[in-house]
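Here is a complete protein record:
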Amino acid sequence: MVWPFRRRKAPKLEVVRLGELSTDAGDYPILSVGQSRLQDSFAALEFTKQSPPLFTWATLTPVVDPRMKTIADVTISIDAHVVGYLRPPALDQAIALLGEHRAASLEVPAALTWGPTGPETSISLPERQPD
């Protein structure tokens, strides 16, 4: 009698750090969305119009749709404060990187700046390797 084999999925890594931190704003090409709704996060980080640009590590965390059991969104957090969300194609790129690295979340370089409409969050994601 042949027993069916069951593959066990390797456990996910909690956090995978990608990229290099830079103090050049040009190294952060991906502008996130949602900052206008997140004023409390910027206040908690003490980031104001008078603040110099902040270059730091941000955590990208997937938000899973419970009904579809798929990633519906990816939040960008600094010190546990959500400072933005990704939109396609960066959203798709982040989802692919999470799967590629078998990670629950990613740490990536981020830049907080103050633009004409308020605080802005930009990140840097490495290019995916072709399949």
Remarks:
- The first strand starts at residue 13 and ends at 17.
- Strands lie at 13-17, 30-31, 54-65, 70-78, 81-85, 103-115, 118-123.
- The longest helix spans residues 90-100.
- The two ends are 38 Å apart (CA to CA).
